[in-house]
Amino acid sequence: MEIVGTATKVTIYIGESDRWRQKPLYLAILEMLKQEGCAGATVNRGIAGFGAHSRIHSASIVRLSEDLPLTIEWIDDPDRVERVMPRLVEMVSEGLITTQQVEVLTYSHRRLRAMPAKSPVRDIMSREVKTVTPDTPLANVVELLVAKAFRALPVVDSQRKVVGILTDGDLLARAGLVTTSLQRELTWTELNDDLDKIRQSGLAANDLMTLNPTTVSEGTPIGDAVRIMTERGIKRLPVVDDQGRLTGMVSRVDVLRALGQPPVRELAERAPQPGRLVKVGDIMVTNLPTVKAETSLDDVVDLLVTQAQRRVVVVDDQNHVAGIITDGDLLKQARENERPGLVQALTRRLPAGKGGKSPLANRTAADVMTRDPVTVQPQTPLLDALGLLLSHKIKRLPVVDDEGRLVGLVGRSEVLQALSREINDG
Fold first, then answer.
1. Does 121-270 match 280-425 in CATH topology?
2. How far apart are CA 162 and CA 209, in angstroms?
3. CATH superfamily of the 280-425 domain
């Protein structure tokens, strides 16, 4: 579980003698939070205090049996707090609950156990899943994808059974009118302008969703989820219960993060961790497009639309890596007069300058590239490369030799395929 950035801090004020179903309330709350997959909570015991009944409680030696005040502090993802809060309010019949927004700078923890491929997906899935219905207006879908930075929204019926899924890729491929909203950091004015156009289109989720997406059950082994993702070329799977109702989502990143964690020592001795002996050079892609810093953006776009990986590496005359360009980089850096042609080129896979001179012709790769990207070498262990992909929140890494010259590219897809082969062979 990873929490960095904006989070919600919940503080619960109760008494030591409070109970929930024949169990101390503080212990019942901790168990409930753990069952719900929360990040963690701490109970603090006060030495004195008074509450709504105005009776002072003290921890003096002669009054240790008094009802001392307790506080429980819980910091977690805002969506998870919102989901769990109704249960918490039900349990705290007498007491005080407060929330406040906090900024998490870092969150790290020591894993208490390994996450082998036979573990069920319920151990790594996200339970905070935003959903839409088939008749949800497309404008509402875009607002969720933009404002909450979701990559996919399951489409569910009235019984919460999965009937479809909508991803940002679906909207990019099937509805060019929303591409700019999804790929650029827009002001609210720009976003509202785009949303007005989408509302006028009259489109709803069922017009663009992928019907009957592949799902897995909560008990599906992680290894099976890996196999399904690699065989079908998908990045995330809705998780359902025995009645087919949505209970969570498991993504490629969830799987990679779980399999990339170092196992505890005693388990490592019995079951080697997948990927431990594989090197980047064993799985890297070597046939990849390159450009120079002075290459016209028209030519960069032409390369991007013909590449499945949608990445172009920028190199110098000695083939040293100077930067990397993605379709997202292009859209984020696009000027107002460049956007229409660029959106059309990326969504329809057309050359940027087709039909006349493109406004991109006057700009170069150096104007939009991400400079000095993180790189690895062919001898880098696969799990070390995976750690870099996850910690830097990037999808692909250029591979360079001892002189810093480009020799390949490795990404999440190649890592997942390698881990899948090891798991299935084992």
1. yes
2. 11
3. CBS-domain (3.10.580.10)
